[in-house]
Please model this.
Amino acid sequence: MTFPQHRLRRLRRTPALRRLVAETRLGVDDLVAPLFVREGLDQPAPISSLPGVVQHSRSSLRAEVAELVSLGVNAVILFGIPESKDARGSGASDADGIVQVAIRELRDEFGDRIVLMADLCLDEYTDHGHCGLLTAQGEVDNDATLERYSEVAVAQAQAGVDICAPSGMMDGQVMAIREALDSTGSDQVSILAYSAKYASGLYGPFREAVDVEIADGGDRKSYQQDFHNLRESLEEIRADLDEGADMVMVKPALTYLDVLARARFEFDVPLAAYHVSGEYAMIHAAAERGWIDGELVALEQITAIKRAGADFILTYFARSLAESFQ
Ligand code: PBG
Model:
């Protein structure tokens, strides 16, 4: 008997045939490496829940970026861990804060060969671990936080960042940042908005990476999205685009492929996805026990995120994937 599906079988017969008809192609240009840099470190420090990822010192950060560039990965997003934290997250906007110093050093060394992004938030810098300033009652004060985000954006821009990536989910953050950048001579700095960002259980290892613990066992459910909702994401994205976002992001990635696919269909702007720390850690944990082939599953997951509609993907696998593509 011959069945219509035999056509598909014929095209799967050899690796070369499969490559020829592949609908999705993943390459180094799709990858953005998230990198952590910690103030006052001499040596890189491992992060136990993110095997293979470290808190960098300033010099190990430059070495890591040099390796990424040599592998063809030319986009990175920086997260800073300050030596001391306070209620206002002062280190985030200090001209000599760790991320600003790192941006200047990377720009000096690599010029425009790399795309430098900086996560724009306060949680790594606040002693209470929230993404914004708190009221006397301990609630996140949206509008007061916008002023702080504007200061952070200006500091990152003056240090030489290409793209500010606000991740705090404050209402009006994109507009506030755009205005601050435009009025301080940084109208060429782009905004990648973490628009559809869910209150997820998958950020755990990241919190270890940046030494963040939310005060009093709190969470981010009042400002990040509820995972029961899809339409809400479209509204968040639309609002950020109206406010002036150049690109938008869905985060996490795998649990929200439906959101990505819908966003791809609805909006004609570059769309990013963040394969987050918990997604990376789960693969490593299972692979360590020999339960899955970690490299294969990483490739499968990151390809699926591209297939669902992401133009580029922030992933802790950026380096190992790039190595496997060589
Ligand atoms: C907030 C921020 C978070 C992540 C990126 N930016 C943590 C949070 O919202 O609690 C998580 C990234 C990851 O888990 O890999 N600054």
In short: Residues 119, 121, 123, 131, 167, 203, 206, 220, 276-277 surround PBG (CB under 6 Å). The first strand starts at residue 31 and ends at 38. The chain has a mean pLDDT of 97. The first helix runs from residue 6 to 11.
